[in-house]
Amino acid sequence: MTQATTAIPHAEALARLASGATPTLRKSGLSRELLLERYHPDHAPAAAATLQIGANAGERCHPTLAELLQANALIDGFDLAGAEQLSTDVLVIGGGGAGAAAALTAASHGADVIMACKLRLGDSNTVMAEGGIQAALGRDDSPQRHFEDTLRGGHYRADPLLVAQLASDAPDAIRWLIELGMHFDVTDAATDGGTLRYKQAGGCTQPRILSYRDYTGLEMMRVLRETVELDPAIRLLNRCPAVELLSHDDGSCAGAVLFDLEYQRFVVVSARSVILATGGCGRLHLQGFPTSNHYGATADGLVLAYRLGAKLRDLDSFQYHPTGIAFPSRLAGGLISEAARSCGAWLINGLGERFIDELAPRDVVTAAILRECADGRGIERDGRIGVFLDTPRLARQWPEGIEHHLPALAHLAAKCGIDPATEPMLVYPTLHYQNGGVVIDGEGRSTVPGLLCAGEVSGGIHGRNRLMGNALLDIIAFGRRAGQRAAEDIGKRPLRRGDIEHVYSWQRTLVQSGLPRQARAPRLYPGPGHYPLHRNERSLA
Amino acid sequence: MSNTLRISIDGKEKEAQAGDSILQAHLKGDETVTANIGCMGQGVCGACRCLVRKEGERETATRLACETLAEEGMQVSFMDYYQPARVSRYGLEDIRDGWEWMKHLRDVFPEASNCRHCSGCDRACPKGITVQEGIALASRGELQAAAEVFDACIMCNLCTLACPENIRPNHVGLFLRRAHAAQTLRPGDLLRRLDQQRRGELAIDLSAVPTAQGERA
Ligand SMILES: Cc1cc2nc3c(=O)[nH]c(=O)nc-3n(C[C@H](O)[C@H](O)[C@H](O)COP(=O)(O)OP(=O)(O)OC[C@H]3O[C@@H](n4cnc5c(N)ncnc54)[C@H](O)[C@@H]3O)c2cc1C
Ligand code: SF4
Ligand code: SF4
Ligand code: FES
């Protein structure tokens, strides 16, 4: 993490801001490309490693992630001996929005579904999303523009086919959510059944973010959770993390091994298809950055898929959201949604200047903030460094705006002990999103037969930078696609007990490549790694 | 800022710094936390619900551990998540028919009319939602107003645990919210766009893929 050697004291910066002079936008002097190259965390020397084994051998990967991807499994054949046996058509792993959409869609297409969650259904990144979801509905907008904005935002590195599906699935995804009972903010209720309210997002040529206040993810997740819990075709297993996948002789996916924390035992689930929906990896705290992610975001899905032979992509590309909380340290990394900037809040450095177009793509804004901090124009408060998010100016221009349209911001500021109408918040970039992930086709299929992926665990949809609102869309659009594909494959895929032959061959590869066999993954939970599963440690040595 | 304080969590003594939340104090031990944790401070997942007794007080209160500051001498116990024996079952068809809204509510949540106004739910709610009022509005048939009351509910189920009549107030609230959206939300812009797509308009032209070099105007 680029930390400032010097910074401007908080009191001094505050006084400058309060003087009332209208901040000017300083000329950058660097092209966007150079700004990214010099200041974005992905480009730091500490962010580069090369994978030695597996489907992506020889490719670039973040070193922290590479360690996990090239680790040994948590279990051995020994562990499966006394395990409980279950079987189902479709096993969904991960209880966020992508998993819920996949499970509901598979069930509605006639599949029997088991859903395994590491925490509880809904304890996820999805429930935390605030800003909203993209869908091109406006008169001057179109799926084509959405498609082009997304490709441009992702620096032309996304898979155009997936992006086209994302953009054209959007209206029906919103309809599906409304049919399940999700609310969206409306304007003009008087005309024409109303029009959904559109917010502007950074990097978009049209305002197209739909939202429910600023807790869109909460509204989405509580509706999805209730629908899943009430669906008789879905069996929900909470606190049952997937610790390994199962394989058939031909290398295809045969199900997964779960660890049931309640009963402290392994559960073997045989399935015709497995849908991985385990989300992202913020809790790996890459390069020491704070994170906005929930507790379970530890890259488990990537590790499981990779060991089974699935191809991954863009493993060196992460989104650092520009506006994480910098002060107080208790809340460091917590997200201040882009909504504040879309509503017009400016970023101000310690000299009282604006230094970047606040609605430029996120990676650019992040690099610009890191540059200010690295060059000593950041602001320091009790050892924490950042720049100001100028909410007081917003409040003066738009009285009631904060309270009414940004209640989560108001709530957050209160937790920081700040009145956003009079005092700016101190912000610093936070690790937010995994841009890459498992390679999928248009129906969520990975390169391993029987293994599908949806949501943040998958890659290719957002290229190397994701636009606000495209993740919530992606989890619904591709969650539904994967769920439908898995259900339609019921007749084509066997329901036989699999094995962990792929783990044995992985272990041989580790030995041949001189990689350590002691490191184990998936991580499952952040922190010291003392949980009951590790009773088995001795038998593995 | 750096004064240390002691609190007891699930019977274990923990050290915390002033300014830590209960959840942060909980994470400091050498055991890995595998339950009662999710969003870690945003206060939206409800996983970290707990009973809190402050030093010198007799009463316990229900709180979210990630949103409550640790205090010297506090006693905390986390509350397990459980699936109540009698889950109110309803299907999507039950929330889609606006004319039968009230009947469906009665069928799915027959207990809702038994509220004895004990305020247990209000005291239990860590979000300050006027749960009892929501249930009163629902039983009077003021369904939209009732739905509105639960707008910021995080579904922590504390009101459900507290209710002696097994009313499951937050699930009543969500039922009404879902029904309201599913029945009344018909935005004109969305209908038009779906219709255009159905007629095959607005298909995406993949050949128009913009590139970094030659971007289309
Ligand atoms: C604070 C915040 C705000 C955001 N705001 C927005 C926004 O406004 N708009 C937008 O589009 N996007 C937003 N995003 C991004 C978006 O919310 C996520 O990318 C998206 O919700 C991911 O959904 P998912 O279902 O793929 O993963 P998640 O919702 O994270 O769900 C994954 C689930 O899988 C579980 N899991 C993990 N490992 C295992 C395992 N081994 N076994 C079983 N289960 C496992 C996890 O615990 C979790 O419950 C935001 C993200 C954050 C963190
Ligand atoms: S579930 Fe009940 S207690 Fe919890 S937030 Fe909702 S209304 Fe309040
Ligand atoms: S706890 Fe139950 S009975 Fe008591 S006021 Fe609330 S809803 Fe009514
Ligand atoms: S951890 Fe999510 S509400 Fe506390």
Automatic annotation (TrEMBL), chain A:
<dbReference type="InterPro" id="IPR030664">
    <property type="entry name" value="SdhA/FrdA/AprA"/>
</dbReference>
<dbReference type="GO" id="GO:0016491">
    <property type="term" value="F:oxidoreductase activity"/>
</dbReference>
<dbReference type="InterPro" id="IPR027477">
    <property type="entry name" value="Succ_DH/fumarate_Rdtase_cat_sf"/>
</dbReference>
<dbReference type="InterPro" id="IPR003953">
    <property type="entry name" value="FAD-dep_OxRdtase_2_FAD-bd"/>
</dbReference>
<protein>
    <submittedName>
        <fullName>L-aspartate oxidase</fullName>
    </submittedName>
</protein>
<feature type="active site" description="Proton acceptor">
    <location>
        <position position="362"/>
    </location>
</feature>
<feature type="region of interest" description="Disordered">
    <location>
        <begin position="517"/>
        <end position="541"/>
    </location>
</feature>
<keyword id="KW-0560">Oxidoreductase</keyword>
<dbReference type="Pfam" id="PF00890">
    <property type="entry name" value="FAD_binding_2"/>
</dbReference>
<keyword id="KW-0285">Flavoprotein</keyword>
<feature type="domain" description="FAD-dependent oxidoreductase 2 FAD-binding">
    <location>
        <begin position="89"/>
        <end position="472"/>
    </location>
</feature>
<dbReference type="InterPro" id="IPR036188">
    <property type="entry name" value="FAD/NAD-bd_sf"/>
</dbReference>
UniProtKB/TrEMBL annotation, chain B:
<dbReference type="InterPro" id="IPR036010">
    <property type="entry name" value="2Fe-2S_ferredoxin-like_sf"/>
</dbReference>
<keyword id="KW-0479">Metal-binding</keyword>
<feature type="domain" description="4Fe-4S ferredoxin-type">
    <location>
        <begin position="106"/>
        <end position="134"/>
    </location>
</feature>
<feature type="domain" description="4Fe-4S ferredoxin-type">
    <location>
        <begin position="144"/>
        <end position="172"/>
    </location>
</feature>
<protein>
    <submittedName>
        <fullName>2Fe-2S iron-sulfur cluster binding domain-containing protein</fullName>
    </submittedName>
</protein>
<feature type="domain" description="2Fe-2S ferredoxin-type">
    <location>
        <begin position="3"/>
        <end position="82"/>
    </location>
</feature>
<dbReference type="GO" id="GO:0046872">
    <property type="term" value="F:metal ion binding"/>
</dbReference>
<keyword id="KW-0408">Iron</keyword>
<dbReference type="Pfam" id="PF13187">
    <property type="entry name" value="Fer4_9"/>
</dbReference>
<keyword id="KW-0411">Iron-sulfur</keyword>
<dbReference type="GO" id="GO:0051536">
    <property type="term" value="F:iron-sulfur cluster binding"/>
</dbReference>
<dbReference type="InterPro" id="IPR017900">
    <property type="entry name" value="4Fe4S_Fe_S_CS"/>
</dbReference>
<dbReference type="InterPro" id="IPR017896">
    <property type="entry name" value="4Fe4S_Fe-S-bd"/>
</dbReference>
<dbReference type="InterPro" id="IPR001041">
    <property type="entry name" value="2Fe-2S_ferredoxin-type"/>
</dbReference>
<dbReference type="Pfam" id="PF13510">
    <property type="entry name" value="Fer2_4"/>
</dbReference>
